Amino acid sequence: MIVNLPAGSRTYAWYWTDRPYNIYIWQGSGGNYLGAYFNIVRNTRISDQVVSYEDLIVDLLVTPEGKQCVLDRDELPESMEQFEQGYVNQTLKDLIVSAGHILAGLIQMKKSLPPGKQQNPPEA
Q1: What percent of the chain lies above the pLDDT cut of 70?
Q2: Rounded to an integer, what distance in angstroms lies between the CA atom of residue 99 and that of residue 50?
Q3: Which residue of 15, 45, 83, 121 has the smallest Cβ count within 10 Å?
Q4: Helix (H, G, I), strand (E, B), or coil: what is residue 7?
């Protein structure tokens, strides 16, 4: 599955300290939604100077049509069920079910912001 990000596209990122993922949403120069990328993570820290997190390898790509593709599963050192005591596997299962709902809220919020405006994400 390929997501095309033409010149002039923007990436918007959302990070939380209390969620097992962060999200990158891509928007075309005309404001159209191009796709999203859920990064499964832990230990997210946010300060005035830096955002840091531990990337847990597996990611979920979502196209504008809502198609989902699990990425990098083949890079795991062991099975999904065993890797990180099943934490990544369970998070992925939860995201597959809830990705559409999560994205709908963020995309709607993004439409209401002026270019370059930062805002805290909505609570889940």
Answers
A1: 87
A2: 26
A3: 45
A4: coil
